[in-house]
């Protein structure tokens, strides 16, 4: 992963995700609905109004969204983050992601659930998360061990790709960026030059990179994002 979200989360070139600038502090409202947080946070996120008509309706929505979450995870598990999926498989993932988008909180960039450590379990474009390390040739040389994105309050995003080179040399590519909020759903992350660690060698290379990502769904278990070039990302909370 020369760079993460292209990490989206990770970068349009690197693949990554994003956080909020201090200058645009988020005001969390105490009257949130539906999600009980597992991050020891004192607030919850608002569901869209059309899903809060009654208690019974909320229960149905919660069950439906849970089913969709389980469905999308089952479709991407064991696919090398989407690399081994056929065209029909990618289309099935996109369809479930589209359905889940209907259950997204009103202002996902203001939801504290975006913070935490996330495993990049799927990307519709293999090279979006990881860059050249995830290209067809790169995968022959570098076997990906893990692809993690950490979103820290208030506005820090860290991407990390761990790999084994030639089957015996451990390595890691890391990116650190600042998150800027563009609107209620879109974020921008500007990353510093990547750092590469390969065996005993450790150095920084390249220049800054930038990624824009739309948060299309987030809950206690997963987060979905769509890059400015159309890449679909599925993140699973670690």
From TrEMBL:
InterPro entries documented for this protein: PAP, PAP/fibrillin_dom
Cellular location(s): Plastid
Residues covered by the Plastid lipid-associated protein/fibrillin conserved domain: 69-235
Domain of life: Eukaryota
Pfam entry (one): PAP_fibrillin
Keywords noted in UniProt: Plastid, Transit peptide
A Gene Ontology term for the protein's cellular component: plastid
Protein name, UniProt field: Plastid lipid-associated protein/fibrillin conserved domain-containing protein
Organism (species): Aquilegia coerulea
